[in-house]
Amino acid sequence: MAATTSISIAPLLSGLPEPGLARRIWPRRIGPGERTARQVLVIDSALLIVLVVLVHLAMVAQGGQGAFPLWATAISWAAAGATLLAGILARRVSDHTLRVLATVAVAGYYATLVSFPFAVPVEGIARIPWTLSASGAAAAAALVAGGRGLAWLTVAAGATAGILYRTLYGGLDLDGVVNDAQALLTGAVICVIGAHILSVGRGLDAAAASTTAAAARESAERGRLTARTRAAALVHDEVLATLSLAASGLPIPRERLAEQAREAASMVSRLADEQAHEPASLRTALAEEARMHGAAFLVCDERAMAAGPTATGPTAVGPSASAAAGAGPAPTIAAPSEAAHEALIGATRQALRNSELHAPGAARRVVLVQAEAELRVEISDDGPGFDPAAIADDRLGIRQSIVGRLARLSGGSAEIESAPGRGTLVRLRCAAAPAKGLDATGGAGARRALRAGVGVLALLYVVVQVLCAVLAAVAVPHSWPLQLGMLALALVAADVLRRSPRRVPSPGRTAVVLALSCGGLVVAAAAAGIHHGALYSYGNAWFAVAVAFLLVALALRRRIVAALAGAGVIVAVLVVTGALLGMPAGAIVQVTVRPVVIVGLAVALLVAVERMQRRIAELHQDAVASAERESWTLAARAELTARVAELARTAVPLLERIGEGGEPTQAQRREYASCEGELRDALRAGSLAREPVIGVVAAARERGVDVVLLDDSGGAVDDGLVDPVVSWMAAEIATARIRAVGRLLPPGREARASVSVDGRLTEFAANRPPGAVEQGSGRGARSVRVR
């Protein structure tokens, strides 16, 4: 489905309610899935009204409709025009305007129903208009205007009005009653399938909202982690090294140390100024590598190419992009793990470098392939080639940077195909990460609602066909064996389909359903010929409509081709039989049109649903990707800003002082050492970086004690267990004179923590009561002299 485009339609809609009023009536905001579903329903409503009007005009041309007052005709045509206008503008107006148009169309249909008694001529009528009894178009519009309840009410109102008006004003015969009964079933089918379309749209929107929120949270956490890692690398590589040297008494040239300090301070400032960006996707990174090495870049999805000729083909980017112009939208590529991403990019870069080095004038190409269970990158050139078996052991570019890099990756491999004079192909493979997709069926709720709706349709189908068979047998008494036989065939075919153990019936079961249905239709046609056309009428041809509903059931079970083939058989049998019997064209159209409309509409709706599911899922995936990028960027930028602000408060003033090149005093050296220790604690202390340890450690460093805090627990220690350890460790470190090392130990050890103070090791036992806080080597602790 294409994205909607707003246009100015003020002259056409000047008489409609104000948008503000519409928003007060329908305050809930909807997503693209539900919006597209409503557009589909309104367009189908317009198509239905076109068919109804054409049939009505054909009957008028044959004199089958009485003369009605101009005002009544105007109401009917206004209702049809409103429905048609809504369908034409469905993709071009806002959702609120679309619902207003649908409401006007439904109101027009109800106005036609209510005003009809006042328009009936005094002499009565032989047949009520088709525009009155065909409620399907109004039901589709009612789904958009007021939901499932209004749609079912509209269908019931049309059926009730049809029977009532036929009883009062004429037309209460077999054709009329069968028409109303089949119209009721047709409207019910539209209600069920249309409600399912809306449910699917809402389900996709709800799933997308949940997925987007979760993806945004995960992406934000990744952004924060990346920012922390980036800041930590700068602190470790530049700031800590500079402060440590400045605190030491090593004979380092002052100018060299000052230059290093100025560079470290500058790097901290630049870190604050730089923008935080999410790493490029695999597609983007490979395209950039290809561009830098003068290679063409293509993307293709083998999963889609295997699905059929309408699937997305390769998409080219780079020097040969024009060759793929018009190939279609770029296929979706699942994001690999970070390790796989780095391995594929690194190996591709090395393969392109090798190609440039050994085949400088060759044409190069990089192809990214999404297969069912793997990602593949193929780097090829048409250069002189070589013998892969003759690669020397010292060719690390191939053995390590390409083959070895992928071999170290779980599920990864690299293959090199080449021969002298035949060019080179490097094929990189890695397991595809599970794609982040949406439930394209709309969720369990939509599936349950569809099953319940199909159950209602099945019951209504049986009731309507029994009624039609009984009425036909009463109208033509000598035809009751034929009517009973056709009813039996219809019910047996329906039961065969119902008993299918799978949602998609097997080819054999489908063939049985078609044989029973079409066989019964042929028998009915033969009977019409035997009775010289006496049975060729809408009422006596009820079995054709019954077969059409069975074909709808086949289409719902994904046997669309079989359903269309069955519809073709219906048309062929009815048209050929009518022509052989010399029936008027209008009679043939009247008998044929409803089965064709039923099957055609159902298939069109189902195809629209599948297309809608795929398109909306793609739109939502784009939204998820956008949310991930935005969350990543915001979180990373916030994290970097916070880290840089902390460094600007603590380390940068000291770096600037060192950068002045003066000889540090002893007090300044202690200050540098203290700051270096605090920064090191922030990197390595983990759960130990809390009071009272932090205060005790700061005081110890002021005394010149070298203190190191290490958290090796991997975050596996509960805060309730860390608090007594921290209190115990603070007391131990307070006694240090030269050096102290406090450490949280990995889980599974006999001790929970250890402290080494001036060469004496003390451990905090793992089975020590959480509330016990002893010092030294008291109960729960053990001391070991470290030599």
Q: First CA to last CA: what distance?
A: 76 Å
Strand order of the largest sheet: 2-1-3-4-6-5
Strand percentage, roughly? 5-15%
Q: Segments where pLDDT lies below 50 for 5+ residues?
A: 1-19, 305-330, 770-787
Write a structural description.
The protein has 787 residues and is an alpha+beta fold. It has 23 helices and eleven strands. It has helices at 19-25, 32-61, 70-89, 95-119, 130-133, 136-146, 148-169, 174-247, 254-273, 282-292, 302-307, 338-358, 396-407, 444-475, 480-498, 507-530, 542-556, 560-580, 585-650, 652-659, 666-684, 693-702, 719-733, and strands at 296-301, 315-317, 364-370, 374-381, 413-418, 424-431, 706-711, 739-744, 751-757, 760-765, 781-785. The longest helix has 74 residues, at 174-247. The model is unreliable at 1-19, 305-330 and 770-787 (pLDDT under 50).
